[in-house]
Amino acid sequence: MSENKFIKGDIKVLNAWAFYDWANSVYPLVISSAVFPIYYGSLFVDDLYVELLGFNFKNTALISFLTAFAFVVLSFMTPLLSGIADYMGNKKKFLKFFCYSGSISCMGLYWFDLSNIYFGLFFYFTALISFWASLVFYNSYLPDIAFKNQQDAISAKGYALGYFGSVLLLVFNLAMVMYPETFGIIGDNSESIAMRYSFVSVGIWWIIFSQYTFYFLPAPNKKREIIKDVIWNGFKEIIDVWNELKKISLIKNYLIAFFIYSSALQTVLLIAAYFGEQEIIWPEGEKTIGLIVSILLIQLIAIFGAIFTSKLSQKFGNIFTLIILNLFWAFLCIGAYFINQPLEFYIAAGLVGLVMGGIQALSRSTFSKMIPKTENTTSYFSFFDVSQKISIVFGMTLFAFLDQITGSMRTSILVFVVIFLLGAFLLKRIKINDY
Question: In this structure, is the dihedral angle defined by the CA atoms of residues 82, 84, 88 and 91, taken in order, positive or negative?
Fold first, then answer.
């Protein structure tokens, strides 16, 4: 769709934007949440520790440290690229680049094993970088294509589509893992091979379904050459945005609260499957299926959770709803400390699904409605995105250190109870009448 045909609020464009969630959400589900954590855990059956770069790492601490480092890189990379995208008017090209690099990296995870762990960790790293880098360009389209009264609903629709689409692929992957011979996968390690094929399926899905989004999203025709100042323009814009937002107490207070609770939220979501793999007492032969079913349960309930939260925010307001969600997450972290049986884990998974999508969609649309009217929306979403990434660095590093020191994910997760409660308290300080 050319720029001169683009009309803000056009339902066709809005649906195409939301459909990118359908395309890319298979990465956070299959790679971050479900199959990869199970596959990764299966590599450490005999010993939970691995020597890397001269250090002896606990397996979950290693992946947490690597994830934290990836978000350090992303925190630097995002403003650099968004500054160029704003100047050149080519954020659609950046969105495409990271979509394709992420897809290829997911396929590369097929070769992940302990005999070439550096190679495998590299693809894990680049897939994570690509997925999160693409989101800043994707999210920045929201205020460009949708009016304020459309943003909560279309944001929630995107998450709902993402949950539904990713569940379809995960069900296919689950069938492949449960009945590998049906798919022509035979041998003693057929289950492991099936999981590796699932990584390839993520890359293929991501590439194919993103084409619908790319076709309809507007692509501004700014023909400019990159000059020296543009390279660092993104950081200058981040500083300029922060200087502007500091004067708006509503947004400043919201961003501080968001930074706090996002550090806990994203970390818990990233380590949940590792927790289930390591801390839950599964009957013999049921761990893999049980964990994937748990993640499926989360995703299915999250479809309705995101929509329900959107309706709740319409009635009670965004800030009040976010306070309730933070308190609920604190309750879930307390409960996680005590669970050790599969049934308890299934119940916890269902409750996570109820509030997982809602708090993410509402956080995104709340900020979108707060930002001042401007042409360079990428800069504001870059700032929002960098805030989220730095919060993940904080959360994942804190968790990794506690996990490495205590040797227990169960004990380490308790720190997030305090963080969620602090997030709720900071949100409570926001004057709802001003929003």
Answer: negative
Mean pLDDT of 349-354: 87
Average pLDDT (243-270) is 86
pLDDT 10s digits, 197-223: 999 999 999 999 999 999 988 876 555
Amino acid code (one letter) for 197:
Y
pLDDT number for residue 416: 92
Rounded distance between C-alpha atoms, residue 27 and residue 205, angstroms: 9
Q: Average pLDDT for residues 369-395, to the nearest whole number?
A: 77
266 and 28 Cβ atoms separated by less than 8 Å: no
Note the pLDDT of residue 2. 44
CA distances from 345 to 265, 279, 294, 334, 351 (A): 18, 10, 8, 13, 10
d(C-alpha 434, C-alpha 430), whole Å: 8
Give the whole-angstrom CA distance, residue 180 versus residue 177. 6
DSSP 231-297: HTHHHHHHHHHHHHHHT-HHHHHHHHHHHHHHHHHHHHHHHHHHHHHHHS-PPTT-HHHHHHHHHHH
Q: How far apart are CA 240 and CA 319, in angstroms?
A: 26
- Tokens 């649906």 -> residue: 15
Q: Which stretch of DSSP H or E encloses residue 55?
A: strand 55-58
User: What integer is the mean pLDDT of 150-178?
Assistant: 85
Helix (H) or strand (E) holding 118: helix 117-139
Read off the tokens for 200. 């390839």
- As a whole number of Å, the end-to-end CA separation of the chain is 35
Is residue 426 predicted with pLDDT exceeding 50? yes
- What local confidence, expressed as pLDDT, does residue 96 receive? 94
Residue 435's pLDDT is what? 47
The Cβ of residue 142 has, within 10 Å, a number of other Cβ atoms equal to 23
Using CA atoms, how far residue 366 sits from 153, 158, 253, in Å, is: 11, 15, 13
Residue with tokens 């590796």: 196
The one-letter code for the residue type at 42 is S
Spell out the domains of the chain, with CATH numbers in brackets: 9-219+230-434 (1.20.1250.20)
pTM, full prediction:
0.77
pLDDT value at residue 3: 47
